[in-house]
Amino acid sequence: MNDIAVLGAGMHPWGKWGRSFVSYGTAAARAALADAGLEWGDIGSIVGADTMRCGYPGYVAGATFAQALGWQGARVTSVYAACASGAQAIGAARAQILAGLADVVLVVGADSTPKGFFAPAGGERPDDPDWLRFRVLGATNPAYFALYARRRMALYGDTPEDFARVKVKNAAAGALNPLARYRSPVTAEAVAASAVVADPLRLLDICATSDGGAALVLSSMEFARRHGHADPVRVRAVSTVSPTYPKAVLDLPDIATDSAVAVAPAPRTFRASIARAAYEEAGIGPEDLSVAEVYDLSTALELEWYEDIGLCPVGEGAKLLREGATALGGRLPVNTSGGLASFGEAVPAQALAQVCELTWQLRGTAGDRQVAGARVGITANQGLFGHGSAVVAVR
């Protein structure tokens, strides 16, 4: 096994704080270092997950956080993969550790976001699919989420009431998480009464944009043992796969699918392939999971992730939800952190935040949202332009 140890996990609470992303990232980094029992000077490498909205420092987040913490000569790396940036950063850190380039690595991601849904960066870029889908089609992120939701309704019979159940479930978990932005329970009636954003999705079906930060201290197993961590949470797999041609299901930011005239579509979708690669690398299957953190950009999208990570057959995500299997206290709780429904998007930090939650769950320190006996967890999300993102953690 190519396991690496998670020695420390730290976060800055999500919200709208009006400060620089650097302050959120350094706060999360210091929390992770304290959790690991290490000093910043002990770190041999730092990997920063980039944000493109925060000026030039956001493009070189590794060096930006290193400078904020105090130059000390550590190896530095900066990674951008949109919403998969955090997982890509973990992958980069893991590669350095396994290659012997660093014994212990600090991984940091943070963001300071605008109000409302994300818009494309400025300038005229007619060869950029992300620019085109906003400017030519008017296909904002909520519009895409609504298309996914409509597809599920047409193919599988999902209903707006099913989508509302996801929000109710995640809000109940988020109410128990002191780091979450939204910490109040939500009723199905409140979801139904919220404004329609992109039919059939309402305001409470769609995650917000948020400020926040998350950080992990990762090390070799030998370093962990030398520093008194006899049984740490371990990262066992990091999946960052890309799609397989032809893509037969529309995906952000593309505005068309590939032709399947000459080549048959792959046996599984891109999102399903992300989880499959993680399972294969870790030597486990979905039946081994204790907990999962998935990317609930919208309530409908969470149901799709249930199927993509193998919790149930395709089309049965809503059935699994109705049975209570994915709620706290259920057979396999999903988004015990509260998910993006409770946090909102702080893009470079969110894949890291998912691993923070797995770390606390597998340590047994998640408080009132603790999953009893948790031993294996998976995270799943994806970034624009075919960036896969899944991490398997074990104890």
Account of the protein in words:
α4 packs across α14. The mean pLDDT is 95. With 395 residues, the protein is of the alpha/beta class. The radius of gyration is 20 Å and the shape is globular. The chain has a nine-stranded mixed beta sheet with strand order 3-2-4-7-1-8-11-10-9, with helices on both faces. A two-stranded antiparallel sheet has the order 5-6. The protein has 14 helices and eleven strands. β5 (196-198) and β6 form a beta hairpin. It has helices spanning 21-36, 56-59, 61-69, 85-98, 129-135, 141-156, 160-174, 188-193, 221-226, 270-282, 299-308, 317-322, 339-343, 347-363; strands at 4-15, 45-49, 75-79, 104-111, 196-198, 201-202, 211-219, 233-239, 291-294, 376-383, 387-394.
The counted number of beta strands is 11
Low-confidence stretches: none
Report strand %. Answer: 15-25%
Give the N-terminus to C-terminus distance in angstroms: 13 Å
Give a quick account of the main beta sheet: strands, pairing sense, barrel closure.
9 strands, mixed
Order of helices and strands: EHEHHEHEHHHHEEEHEHEHHHHEE
Q: Report the C-alpha radius of gyration, rounded.
A: 20 Å
Number of helical segments with 4 or more residues: 14
Strand order of the largest sheet: 3-2-4-7-1-8-11-10-9
Structural class: alpha/beta
Helix content: 25-40%
Kindly state the mean pLDDT as a whole number? 95
The best one-word shape is globular
